[in-house]
Amino acid sequence: MSEPKKLFIKTYGCQMNVYDSERMAEALGGQGYVETQSADDADMILLNTCHIREKAAEKVYSELGRFKGLKAEKPDLKIGVAGCVAQAEGEEIMRRQPLVDLVVGPQSYHRLPEMEAKTRQGAKALDTDFPEEDKFEQLKKRPKAKRGPTAFLTVQEGCDKFCAFCVVPYTRGAEVSRPVDRILNEARDLVERGVREITLLGQNVNAYHGAGPAGDMTLAQLIWQLDKIDGLERIRFTTSHPNDMGDDLIEAHGTCDKLMPYLHLPVQSGSDRILKRMNRSHTAESYLRLIERIRAARPDILMSGDFIVGFPEESEADFQATLNLVEEVKYGYAYSFKYSTRPGTPAAERPQVDLAEADDRLQRLQALITRDQRSVQDSMVGREVKVLFEKPGRLPGQMGGKSDYLHAVHVDDADVEIGDLRRVRIVDSAANSLRGVLA
Ligand code: 5AD
Ligand code: SF4
To answer: What is the whole-number distance in angstroms between the Cα of residue 279 and the centre of ligand 2?
Structure first.
């Protein structure tokens, strides 16, 4: 038997890319590849790239440059670029970096096996189409191997919202929902292999409207279907848009025990003027009222969000409105980013905020967010929470996992196994994690 070929995938960006990388590894498994953790012994290197912020394309080019030596030593080594930079740059990647053999956009991953075969014949392979066929169906079924207790499952892709700063509608394309039965089959299969928590993924996941047996289903209806799967203990979803937060989804947060009390609901800014310029089609006020309704359904829900500071034309007063909104919501987690120009998006053409000013705002916002995150995390001390144990902790004898609220929790010298879901009393809160004892 010939030695299996080795595949090294480096994943950048969001959880959807993590999921896609898994599926690409599985698809190439059919071509005789096994994954390796090091580029040095790989027969194929794939960079699964992200284009959302910063000089994403430049980073990819410099990373590719580093493989020059490897390729010289090993002429059979194939190098590929996948993900949103591949979609955005296309052929340009091969022009600028001739050592690249393969460029594949996110909608064409099911074509990877043919593309790989083409590169083995010495040709270049490029595919950045938005094909008609369902890539998830075409991708090889997940192998039956046992796996860890948590998994991602992409249910929706693409976005029709066209926020003025965002490349997603261009790189991932129009919004598409996967049919219900396929998602349920994939979920059952994951559970059979040891998964106890599934995070449903989509760029605009709560706009989900996949085909069900009797017409389209909403995300809440899909969650209730997943709720029936024995052995599946926890359901999460991300990322949501405020305008797609349907009544049934809010209600499910109060009534579905498997749906975790955590909601990532990006608002981006607290200023109505900026929200309008961002094409967000909600106001700060409507967002706050929405959170009130969500908290009425599930009072202990942990809210999480995303913010952009230094969006074109953002004034100090606009930024103050963002700080006020953060004060009001009291996020358990929040992610803040300095605006980064994405060529081809509407905001790219507008007057930019001074960079030093944007840096200063980012620091002030992050200080406020850190304060709230810490106080929400500290408020867990003394409480009993459920923890799904995922992996050994940093110190010998420690085991770590996540609480329902997604806080990292570890216990010392306890009799727990990976995959156990146990009640834990929280005794201490450190910078980024909680310590507990089995209850
Ligand atoms: N600049 C800065 N942040 C951005 N995001 C998306 N596009 C940009 C951009 N051009 C942020 C948003 C989004 C998160 C995933 O990334 O906050 O919610
Ligand atoms: Fe991008 Fe999200 Fe806006 Fe869609 S809703 S355009 S993915 S920020």
So the answer is: 10
Q: Determine which helix (DSSP H) or strand (DSSP E) holds 34, and give its type and residue range.
A: strand 33-35
pTM here is 0.92
The b/e string for 327-352 (b: 16+ C-beta within 10 A; e otherwise) is eebebbbbebbbbbebeebbbeeeee
Q: Which atom of ligand 1 is nearest to the CA of 266?
A: 18
Does the Cβ of 196 fall within 6 Å of ligand 2? no
In this structure, the residue with its CA closest to atom 7 of ligand 1 is 166
Cα 269 versus chain centre, distance:
21
> Cβ(346)–Cβ(376) under 8 Å?
no
Which ligand is closest in space to the CA of residue 53?
1
- Over range 246-254, report the average pLDDT: 98
Which amino acid is it at 369? Answer: I
Sorted by sequence, the CB contacts under 8 Å of residue 151 that are 6+ apart come out as: 190, 195, 197, 198, 199
Residues in the chain, total: 439
What is the C-alpha separation between 367 and 111, in angstroms, rounded? Answer: 45
Residue 279 CA: nearest ligand 2 atom is 3
Which H helix or E strand runs over 26? helix 15-29
Spatial neighbors of 430 by CB under 8 A, at least 6 apart, are: none
φ, ψ of residue 321 to 5 degrees: the values are -60, -35
Q: pLDDT tens-digit profile of 160-187?
A: 999 999 999 999 999 999 999 999 999 9
Q: How many CB atoms sit inside 10 A of residue 290's CB?
A: 17
The number of the ligand nearest the C-alpha atom of 159 reads 2
pLDDT tens figures, 287-330: 999 999 999 999 999 999 999 999 999 999 999 999 999 999 99
Q: To test ligand 2's pocket by mutation, which of 14, 166, 206 has the most ligand atoms within 8 angstroms of CB?
A: 166
Pairing of strands 197-201, 176-177: unpaired
**Sequence-ordered list of residues with C-beta below 8 angstroms from that of 354, at least 6 positions apart, any chain:** none
Chain position carrying tokens 């409105």:
321
